[in-house]
Amino acid sequence: MFMDILFIPIIIVGVILLLILGILLMWKRVPQDKAVVITGLKKRVISGGGGLVVPLLERSDIISLENMKIEVRTDSALTEQGVDIRADGVAVLKVKSDMESILSAVEQFNMGTEKATIEFIKDTAKDVLEGKLREIISKMSVEEIYRDREKFASQVQEVAALDLAEMGLEIKAFTIRDINDDNGYLIALGKSRIAEVKRDAQIAEAEASKETKVKTAEANRQGEQARLISETQIAEASKEKELKVQSYRKDQETEKAKADLAYEIEASKVQQEVEKEKMQVQIVRKQKEIELAEQEALRREKELEATIKKQSDAEKYSAIKKAEVDKYRELQDAEVSAEAIRLKGKATAEARREEGMAEVEIIRERGKAEAEAMMKKAEAFKQYNDAAITQMIIEKLPEIAKAVADPLSKTEKIVIVDSGSGAGKGAAKVSGYVTDIIASLPETVNALTGVDLKQILKGKDLGALVPNDKTGDEA
């Protein structure tokens, strides 16, 4: 009994250990890059985890979820133009991670082992890609394939992806590695392209050189323009400075001229005042001279009255002297008036002042000369005797006769109307007319001056020198 009780715990422990060992043996652990498809009791997929697989009742198939690299190559693929080319590409694909795609891939590609399954997937995918590659090549030209590989690869990837997706596969990448042909078509196309590229390069280089030259010329032009603008601005500044200097000098000269003119005007005013004072002095002096002349005339008149024997001679001489004094006074008054006019003209206009002064000086000198001449004549007349007076009259007779006969000398034509009753005949009377006129001169002189030439020449009447009353009154 005791032994039965002792074996019960051992049995229980053994069963538990067997259960644990069984669970461990049935537990299936799957890494992240793998997937296990369990079929039997219940179809399920385990990836990146673990699960129980009942032996004999369930089956597990493993498939890789890693990327698979496939090299694709086409030989003698005809393009749209019928050109035979070769295209080499590389595709990267994998089994999609969703449960439906994994089940589809296992269903189509399971070879019992993981490695065999992978190889089968690669072969199948390669065949699909090469077929699709040929399909796309037949729809494109060599130039399009050669020049736009990315477009070519993307079209292959698009059409192949649909078929591969039904197999639970997806294309991660597809690249065209090489395109070639056995006929030299691509080489010729390359040469043309090379030539085109070289041409474009040369054109680009020429354009660049041209642009460089244009920009250089433009830079030079702008530099020259900037230099000219700078020089122009400098010239304008210099010109403006010169104009300001000239304007400043002009203002200075104008102000100086105004100052000089003001000084000259002031000096002229002062000079006019001085001249006015001088003229006042001269006027006073002239007045004094006139007074002295009057006094001298009175003195001489008194002296003449004392020395002349006859009253008539004294009156005659007095009248003559008075006339001389009056004439002298008039001359002096005229001179004073002329001086006053000259002073007034000088105050109003400097130019007319000079002219007025000249005229006044001429009048004054002429008056003085005439006055002095008359005074000298008067002095001389005082000393003259009858013989001297007679001599003077006789000396003037030829001039009188010449004055009488002079009109006849200027006569171009004389018409004589004669009845023949006279003593002379025709033209002979013309000379008689002249003789008669000259013979009447003594009477004419006596009538005009009161001097009887006949008596003087006879020497009988010395009193004939004294003018008659009528003549004296007229004088």
From TrEMBL:
Residues 25-193 form the Band domain. The chain crosses the membrane at residues 6-27. GO terms for biological process: protein localization to plasma membrane. CDD domains: SPFH_flotillin. SUPFAM superfamilies: Band 7/SPFH domain. Residues 267-310 form a coiled coil. The keyword Disulfide bond does not apply. The keyword Transmembrane applies. Keywords: Coiled coil, Membrane, Transmembrane, Transmembrane helix. Pfam families: Band_7, Flot. Belongs to the band 7/mec-2 family. Flotillin subfamily. This is Band 7 protein. It comes from Alkaliphilus oremlandii (strain OhILAs) (Clostridium oremlandii (strain OhILAs)).
